[in-house]
Write a structure and sequence with these properties.
The complex is a heterodimer of chains A (162) and B (617). With 162 residues, chain A is an alpha+beta fold. Chain B is α/β, with parallel strands linked by helices and 617 residues long. The longest helix of chain B is centred in the last third of the chain and has 18 residues. Chain B is globular. Classes of the chains: A alpha+beta (162), B alpha/beta (617). At the A-B interface, α2, α4, α5, α6 and α7 of A face α2, β9, β11, β15 and α18 of B.
Chain lengths: 162, 617
């Protein structure tokens, strides 16, 4: 996180406590999460007590306080996806990657998120990979998706060595 | 474009834009809604763009990337005018053929037409397709006319015709009376009469008043607000402008879920465009009315669907509700009188002003007027967004429009109204989509989610699912919701894991009753509904879990067993390779076997097997 980038986000919003959520959204969009130092700066610049910034940042699901993995698998657990077996997908991802929702694999390659609804209910179950939606998912398709991403990493590593 | 200073200038612009488009002979409407984008419609759009350019048709053919057409299951969807030809499951490879064959030569491409899954008959236009036939698409049909990023499209299609009617020489009471007479009720879940809400807000004292569009569509399984805002943002803005004029608001907010990036983007573009034309800002169209709109992004909290929590969130605070001793129409955003309506409610407003209240309420029932958009999803053939006249029966929606069961498993229930609603069994399918009728039956219209369930859906698991959802989403401020949902979930978990006792069912009902009577806000008050409705209509399923330790639908992991049907297994070995737990053994071309002790019931074998040999009981 560069101070300039944060400056740009805060531009025109300083000393306006009502801009807190908007500012946090932009920070998250820019940096992928809300860094600790950003919380401090936001508190000073907007004039909101530090504890209140932290409270808002931890209350809303949209905000992450830790960096995510390179590939974020967002599992939709909405009702329409649920009745088509989305819990099997979530369980499978947890089992295969060895991490819980919100965590990152030790190699930094994956993180899992679950979201209440991605709003493409007609095509469920939906799994989003870095925001791109995959429809009609099954454990089998998810296995292939995870394998493809892991395989790419191995190939990238080979290229780097070469 | 220059700022418009009067109604006359707006009409001139409309005429000029229409004249400019006279050279267009064909319009290709490609769905760019979230559903079709999931099915790769962006590649289809790019392919069409290249094809039109290489065939030299840029000037005569207009490629219009529209919002959702509703039939998401068939995406990507393309409609070609004139002729209204409806093509589905279009791929980028089809672009050349469609442009050359249909656009240039006017010939149909049979294989891209919709094929009825039952009769095998192919239909050319939307109007003939059973999915669309029984619908009354007053709002959704407008999506296909406009590119959501083009205010010109909206104006050419007749948009911003209602707004000028309320600007000059019309008293706020007249506007409100028209909305009252229409019988419009809130489409977000509550079903509160919109006109009455506006009236109370108009009468409330305050220096500054606000209107808010609730686009924080938190109901899992509902996505109509997303598609309306994504597909036709100016329609929603025009509704808000009319509402603001009626109650005397100078400022409005669209509170939209950040999980809907396209809706955020399109509504931002729409606001900028409206501002540029002077449809937002000071002295709109030369009238004394001034109005501004900002977009506020939600933080992904279901409780922010509750009005006081939503307003706290716009103020940059934690989305916790507070008691509504004084309603938000009097003491709302920044303690000022505020009118909050949801996307679909606002979208209904312009046409009521334009066509009159009697046009609007010519459809519907005694207490529920107009149409309702439903998100028809789950274990059904035709999934998508459906708009029907209020009063249409659930049966018509599920079977005539939805085409019935997705596979051989018979449909047994429908869940309406999201986490605040309930599950209705098949023998209640003759009930009408009507605020009062569904509430009477223990469910609700809510925001219009309609999730269809079949014999492979466990109703106890559904109740557990909603309790988990609500436990996660409860803000924790009031005890009945925070602790009550926890305790209910404990009991339901016991039941789904084989530890249930019959007397727990009575306790569950008692808890549900207490929570609904004592919780602070709508989230808690309605939280027990999914439990109560499944207990009311599907008690035998609860009893099977408790007495027989069985899950009849084959869902609850602790009570089911995966096994391989020897009649169907051909020993191909796919399941052995797929199983991460080493639970399947068997020689090649010999029947395989699952070791129940090792099986984690993850379902991978079932989804890998091409011969339907993996069974669950």
């Amino acid at each position: 996180m560069t101070p300039q980038a944060l400056d740009q986000i805060l531009e025109g919003r300083r000393s306006q406590p009502n801009q807190l959520i908007e500012v946090l959204q932009d920070i998250q969009e820019n940096f992928g999460y809300i860094p600790r130092e950003a919380i401090k700066s936001v508190s000073q610049e907007l004039g909101v007590p530090l504890i209140e910034v932290y409270r808002v940042a931890s209350f809303y699901k949209a905000f992450r306080l830790k960096p995510s993995g390179k590939n974020v698998l967002t599992m939709c657990t909405g009702t329409a996806c649920h009745v088509r077996g989305s819990d099997l997908l979530l369980d499978y991802a947890i089992d295969q990657l060895g991490i819980k929702p919100g965590e990152v694999t030790p190699d930094g390659l994956f993180s899992i998120e679950h979201v209440n609804c991605l709003g493409a209910c007609a095509l469920g179950p939906i799994v989003a990979e870095n925001g791109s939606y995959h429809k009609h998912m099954t454990p089998s398709k998810l296995r292939k998706l995870i394998e493809t991403i892991s395989h790419q990493k191995t190939e990238d590593a080979h290229h780097a060595q070469a | 474009m220059p700022r418009l200073n009067s109604y006359r200038e707006l009409e001139h612009l409309r005429e000029r834009l229409r004249e400019q488009r006279q050279s267009i002979t064909t319009t290709m409407m490609v769905c760019g809604g979230t559903g079709c984008r999931t099915s790769n419609s962006q590649a289809v759009i790019d392919a069409f763009r290249n094809e039109l350019s290489s065939q030299g048709l840029d000037d005569s053919v207009r490629l219009c990337v529209t919002g959702c057409h509703g039939f998401c299951e068939q995406g990507p969807v393309v409609i070609i005018e004139p002729g209204n030809t409806f093509y589905c499951h279009v791929s980028p490879e089809d672009a050349f053929e469609i442009v050359y064959q249909t656009v240039v030569k006017g010939e149909l491409i049979e294989r891209l037409l919709y094929e009825d899954p039952v009769s095998g008959e192919r239909f050319r236009t939307e109007a003939e397709i059973p999915f669309y036939k029984a619908q009354e698409r007053r709002i959704l049909s407008q999506n296909r006319m406009v590119d959501p990023c083009s205010i010109e499209d909206y104006i050419v299609a007749g948009g911003y015709t209602a707004l000028p009617r309320v600007l000059n020489g019309v008293a706020p009471e007249e506007i409100i009376n028209e909305i009252k007479a229409s019988g419009l009720r809130g489409r977000g879940g509550g079903g509160f009469p919109t006109g009455r809400k506006w009236d109370e807000c108009l009468g409330a004292p305050g220096d500054e008043k606000y209107v808010i569009c609730n686009a924080d569509e938190g109901d899992p399984g509902a996505y109509m607000d997303r598609c309306v805002l994504e597909g036709n943002p100016h329609l929603v803005l025009e509704g808000m402008m009319i509402g603001a004029r009626a109650i005397g608001a100078g400022k409005g907010y669209v509170y939209v879920r950040n999980e809907y990036p396209l809706a955020v983007k399109h509504s931002r573009i729409a606001v900028e465009q409206a501002r540029e034309l002077g449809l937002l800002g000071d002295n709109i169209l030369g009238s004394p009315f001034s109005f501004e709109v900002d977009i506020a992004r939600g933080g992904g909290a279901f409780v922010c669907g509750e009005s006081t929590a939503l307003m706290a969130s716009i103020e940059g605070k934690v989305g916790e509700p507070h008691p509504k001793d004084v309603h938000t129409v009097v003491d709302g955003l920044y303690h000022q009188p505020t009118t909050l309506n949801n996307v679909e409610t606002w979208a209904n407003v312009p046409s009521i002003i334009l066509n009159g209240s009697s046009w609007f309420n010519s459809k519907g029932t005694k207490g529920s007027k107009g149409t309702k958009i439903l998100a028809l999803t789950g274990r059904i053939k035709n999934t998508g967004l459906v708009e029907v006249a209020m009063g249409t029966s659930i049966r018509e929606v599920v079977f005539d429009i939805g085409g019935g069961a997705a596979n051989s498993n018979p449909i047994k229930a429908v869940q309406t109204g999201g986490p605040s609603g309930g599950c209705l069994p098949l023998d209640k399918f003759d009930l009408a989509v009507d605020f009062d009728v569904l509430a009477e039956a223990g469910s609700m219209v809510g925001s219009g989610g309609m999730v269809v369930m079949d014999e492979e859906t466990c109703m106890v698991d559904v109740a557990k699912y909603f309790l988990e959802f609500l436990q996660d989403e409860s803000c924790g401020k009031c005890l009945p919701c925070r602790v009550g949902i926890d305790r209910m979930l404990e009991i339901i978990t016991d039941i789904t894991e084989g530890r249930g006792r019959m007397e727990q069912l009575d306790l569950l009902e008692e808890l549900a009753d207490t929570v609904s009577q004592t919780a602070l806000c709508g989230l808690g008050k309605t939280a027990p509904n999914p439990v109560l409705s499944t207990l009311r209509y599907f008690r035998p399923e609860y009893e099977a879990h408790i007495k027989e330790k069985k899950c009849p639908a084959g869902v609850c992991k602790a009570l089911i067993t995966y096994w391989i049907d020897p009649e169907k297994c051909n020993g191909c070995g796919v399941c052995i390779r797929g199983c991460a737990h080493g639970a399947i053994t068997g020689e090649k071309k010999q029947v395989h076997v699952i070791d129940d002790q090792l099986c984690q019931k993850c379902g991978i074998c079932r989804s890998e097997c091409k011969f339907d040999a993996i069974q669950v009981t």
